[in-house]
Amino acid sequence: MLQTLAPLQGLLPFEGAITPPKLDYTALAPLIVVFVAACLGVVVEGVLRRRIRDEAQLIVAGLGLIGALVFTVQGWTTGKQGIHAMGSVAIDGPSYFVWGLLLVVGLLVVLMMSERTLNGGAMGFAPMAAAVPGSPIERRAIELKVEHTEIYPLTMFAIFGMMLFASSNDLITMFVALEVFSLPLYLLSGLARRRRLLSQEAALKYFLLGSLSSAFFLYGTALLYGFAGGFELRTIDAAVGAKGPSSLLLLAGLGLVAVGLLFKVGVVPFHSWTPDVYTGAPTPITGFMAIATKAAAVVALLRILYVGLGAMRWEWAPLLAALSVLTMLVGSVIALTQSDMKRLLAYSSIAHAGFLLVPMAAAVTVQTATSGALTSSVGSILFYLSAYGFATLGAFALITMVRKAGGESTSLASWAGVGRRHPVFGACMVLFLLSFAGIPLTGGFMGKLMIFLAGWSGGYAWLVLVAVLMSLVAAFFYLKVVVVMFFREPGEAAEGVTVEKASWLTWVAVVVGVIGTLLLGLWSGPLADLAARMSVFLR
Amino acid sequence: MNLPVLSLLGLLPLVGALVTFVLRGHLAKLVGFAFSLATLVLGVVVYIVSRGTDLSEDVVWMRTIGAHWALSSGGLAMVMVLLTVIVVPIVLLAEWKVGDSTDSGRSSTGLFFALALMLESFALLCFMASDVLLFYIFFEATLIPMYFLIGGWGGPRRGPAAMKFLLYSLAGGLVMLFGVIGAGAQGASAGKASFLISDLAAAGIDTGTMGRLMFLAFFIAFAIKAPMVPVHTWLPDTAEQATAGSSTLLVGILDKIGTFGMIRLCLEIFPDSSKWATPVVLVLALVSIIYGALMAITARDLLRLISYTSISHFGFMVLGIFAFTSTSIQGSIFYMLNHGFSTAAMFLVIGFLVKRRGSALVADFGGVQKVAPVLAGTFLVAGLSALSLPGTSSFLGEFMVLAGSWSRHPVYAAIACIGMVLSALYVLLAYQRTMTGPVTDQVATHVTTDLNLREKAVMAPLIALLLVFGFFPKPIISGLDQAVKDTMSAVKMTDPAPAVEGGK
Question: For residue A66, is it within any domain?
Fold first, then answer.
């Protein structure tokens, strides 16, 4: 762009005021590949005929994700670390780790989205989002087999945004990334094929509350800029060091930025969108949000707190600890009363957010550990996110298979006895639930062990005690599902409920989930080592 | 030692479980039983070899957090291994037809066998583990097969019973997780990132309030497991609903992890806190002894009766452990072994009886001895061993516990003796009410056959073991000398001056 302006040099008023950014394309390759694939998806939408569009979109998205994954692995193994794009993108261990996680999850979710066997040849998304539910236009759209293949580029944009979000090194880039991944998600939440009103309601709620939280984030950014005179985390850190941590501007900025991020993580009291959105959104999208949004937001939060505001630890750590208690309590206790699987998993994801705050508050880093700490906060959180991700992905994939009269049947009562009638389905679900509950031999247990160890090493033994007790409450509602699946006699609600045969597109998510959960539970050394080595933020 | 024989022993039943899961019908039963027999042989061989050679294994499992795949062939662990490998095949034989009843639907015996083998594997690894994290993992893992064993077969209200069992156990397990994490983190900050029991014991983490809190976390978990009053209520409810085989596995093997853990983890890693807690623990042990016995006397259900007797017996074991004399600890361990056999005998013979009659209520029986004399006879022998009649092996264990604790806490030992008297009462009363007297109509119609060949084959080895170890306990007890010496030096206690000649 700037090259094309070269002939005009000397004529423009801003000559010399803007230096063109020198981008290291190889280092930024993972981001670029996903972004290009997303843009290609838009092109495909406009160019190709409808009949072959779905396959083409799947191929573009799949190749884009695999390509980005290859670049990510290559980048990490060749030790390409650094702060790029004029200090706006930090490519470091946590970035690589969460990129890998997002890309793998994204790939599996994209496959799940193209599942057609379960819906009698149609996708699990609304045929025409603009049509009023139940209207003649909608019926006509169904007859014509219209569908929104735009979901693929939307998902790709969301993945791109999340990747950038987790690795952004200044607040403005972070805000842009936040919007880049949020807007597609608002849309995707409203596209469920069945129970469309619920889905649209979810999308609207998500949009309104999400915009509000973005506003908080932006205002906080402005205040921090006012305090530090710059957007870069490094600048903010230096300013805190120079001016001390007691400025009102700084505290208010910290609070507002944190609210914006805690909203995305789903921490109480900023969690109220979670149950409705998780229930209303199409199930593959719910699974995607439950893992990817959470992972990206947690890493972004860690980056701001540890890199930009590390010197303010004594201000934010007690606050995070208090929020952690509140989140675990609300998530676990309210989950006890839920009677819908997706809602239950929504509250479970809130409880997990609470567990994740335990090591975050403890802030044990490899550098700060005075004497031997077993694991750093970031390393344990990265491990926990992967273990949680495998189980969540598998669980939501399984939820799409339980059907009644063509639609998903998510009420807990309708699940009575499905485990006994379909032992493979039941065994997989039990494994994921046990992993959520943190029972040994699953990845979930190892994750809990790591984050609690980090919490204890950081001086939060009391918080670990609370977390352990809350794990018991949480275990109760996971076990409730096991009881319903295996030991409850099917009642009225369970009539006509079957576990439909899904194609490999859905099963691959389940299989990866099972293997990942077991592997992390039995042989977690390699991933734990990897997470430990990838746990240092660049500043 | 090149061959990781302990790992093989621990994993063999797990392989068996997986194979049995896949197979169907009669073949599954045979294969499952064959695996349990193979484990028995390997277990006995390991027990004998371990007397002369150290078979311990230690491989780093997760370097980052210092977790080891470490198994020990210490005396205490090996006795528990012996108990486990003997009881499991007997239980499988006793539950040969568990899946045939109409209630459980399809022929699900193979599944029962697979779960029992899975449980055996986890229990063996738990007993042999010399790494706290490894111990914890298998401690919790046993809950999964046990939950399905209770929930899958047995009485009509087995679902809630299984849930109650699971919630109590999970509560204990999670409380213990607090202790595990604390031990790991404190040990690491003391210099060495390791979960090995020996490293943690050497790290000196048992200091101050934190040490006591961690001790409590472990102790509460083991007290729930063992079970001690006041956290015992899950046991009678569970035993009432589960099949006799499941109850045997539960009380005979799994609950021993509780008392085992007290010796292996509480005493070795937290010696000072253990001594600090002794007064309360001893009182709780006495309460368990007396309360369990009284509840057994008044129990109206035979299965509840046995579970209450077990609560009483676990009280004796805890008393022996926390009396801190080598005789009492040795007696306690020996008692753990024999209680496994005697409670198995009780549960299984009553299981046969209940299967015939279709009820476990004491009031529904009377005069069984006339229609099924062999059954009544085995019931009596099993009962006599439960009341610790001299000549049965339980007597030796109980006597050593009392003799040992007498030298330090004469009053407590005296009170515990009351428990012995009460035990005679509950066993003999139960025998009198169910076996003697005129044959009631109901008994005459339902109890038509005496023990068949398979059932006799189940009871014979148990009774033989009770008698053999009763008259000839030396091989087992002498194997425990070193383990007890280690425990005593871990808690830095010596036997009180007037040496007691309890253990032979």
Answer: no
Residues in chain A: 539
Nearest to B228 by CA among B275, B181, B270, B277: B277
Interface of B with A in 138-157 (CB under 8 A): 138-141, 143-144, 148, 151
pTM of the model: 0.91
Residue with tokens 């189980």: A391
The dihedral built from the CA positions of residue B257, B259, B260 and B261, taken in this order, carries a sign that is positive
**Contact A479/B175, CB-based, under 8 Å?**
no
Total structural domains in chain A? 1
Domain membership flag for residue A399: yes
Nearest to A434 by CA among B173, B68, B421: B173
Is residue A369 pLDDT above 50, yes or no?
no
pLDDT at A430: 93
A524 → chain B, closest CA residue: B62
Say what percent of chain A tops pLDDT 90: 63
With cut-offs at 50, 70 and 90, classify the pLDDT of residue A366: low
Distance from CA of B176 to the nearest CA of A (A): 9
The beta-carbon neighbor of B65 closest among A374, A445, A469 is A374
Please compute, for residue B189, the number of CA atoms within 13 A of its CA located in the half-sphere on the CB side: 16
DSSP-based helix, strand, coil % in chain B, nearest 5: 75, 5, 20
Q: What is the pLDDT of residues A86-140, one digit of tens each?
A: 889 999 999 999 999 999 999 999 999 998 888 877 888 888 888 888 889 988 8
Q: Which chain B residues are Cβ-neighbours of A470 within 8 angstroms?
A: none
The mean pLDDT of chain B is: 88
Give A43's contacts (C-beta < 8 A, 6+ positions apart): none
pLDDT digits (tens, 9 = 90+) for B279-338: 999 999 999 999 999 999 998 898 999 999 999 999 999 999 999 888 899 999 999 999
Residue B392 phi/psi, 5-degree rounding, is -90, 155
Contact criterion met (CB below 8 Å) for A273 and A206: yes
Tens digit of each residue's pLDDT (9 = 90 or more) over B128-163: 999 999 999 999 999 999 998 998 888 888 888 998
User: Packing angle between helix A443-457 and helix A377-399, nearest 10 degrees?
Assistant: 150
Taking the Cβ of residue B22 and every Cβ of chain A, the question of whether any pair is shorter than 8 Å is answered with no
Q: Are strands A82-84 and A402-404 parallel, antiparallel or unpaired?
A: unpaired
Q: Do B65 and A453 touch (CB under 8 A)?
A: yes
Count other Cβ atoms within 10 Å, centred on residue A492: 8
Distance CA B152, CA B112 (A): 8
Containing H/E element for A402?
A: strand A402-404
B302-322 and B234-241 helices, crossing angle to 10°: 140
User: Best mutation site among A449, A462, A480 for testing chain B: the one with the most B CBs within 10 Å?
Assistant: A449
Q: Supply φ then ψ for residue A131, to 5 degrees.
A: -75, 145
Q: Which of the four pLDDT bands, split at 50, 70 and 90, describes residue B474?
A: confident
Q: Does B170 reach chain A within 8 Å, measured CB to CB?
A: yes
The reply to whether residue B64 touches residue A374, judged by beta carbons under 8 angstroms, is: yes
Measured distance CA(B203)–CA(A312) in Å, rounded:
34
**Contact, B157 vs B241, CB < 8 A?**
yes
A535 in a structural domain? yes
Residue located via tokens 């050497």: B202
Roughly how many angstroms between the first and final C-alpha of chain B, as a whole number?
Answer: 33
Domain limits for position A526: 311-539
